[in-house]
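To close the section, here is one more complete example, presented without commentary so you can practise reading it yourself. The ligand is calcium ion.
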Amino acid sequence: MRILLAEDDDGVAAALVEVLYDHGHDTRRVRLGRDVLTYHRSADLLILDLGLPDVDGLEVLRGLRAVSDLAVVVLTARGDERSVVRGLRLGADDYLVKPVRLAELLARIEAVTRRAAARTAAAPAGPRTVCAGDVEVDLEARRVRVAGVAVELTAKEFDVLAVLAGRAGTAVSREQVLDEVWGDAHRAVSRSLDVHLAQVRAKLGRPGLVTTIRGFGFRFGN
Ligand code: CA
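Output:
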């Protein structure tokens, strides 16, 4: 299996590369979060340290999940429950706290890979362009068109729209949007969500495209 290992600690990385190699895995090691976004397409599984020098690992995970279903095992010194929950909610398949037993890591990698294979067989990747009426949201290219005309959204505005459009026709809770876009369901950013969503609605000019479900969250499309 091709494994991408994002780990800035040389000692940890060397030990992991060796044991992975011994178990027949072709491993590419990178030091930076941005390298993950460069090389993820040529990997079957990502082992992701959260404390990376350039971008926080949870941000890397969020960016990756916008474009990929790659199996991800988070491997980190952060064992607090909050980080674990955030990592899993952002789409990590498993979460291991350092120091890790190598036999356990290998077993977890196998389990995650089996589940990923089952998932792929059961449900081929959904459409990456979502349409509702004359609104087209291209989740891969991060572009939006209304009646064939491109609409410019800021990165955060698009993130908010993408969380909803990615589950078109489904009610999505406020917490889910906050968690996926800001990595935090905290009150302080709750107001930002309303501001960004108001901007998205104003720019798209399609009332009813995003429905507010009182006391819960939102729904994109019908
Ligand atoms: Ca680190």
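Once you have examined the tokens, check your reading against these statements. The helical segments are 10-22, 33-39, 57-65, 81-89, 102-122, 155-165, 174-182, 187-204. Residues 86 and 183 are 7 Å apart (CA to CA).
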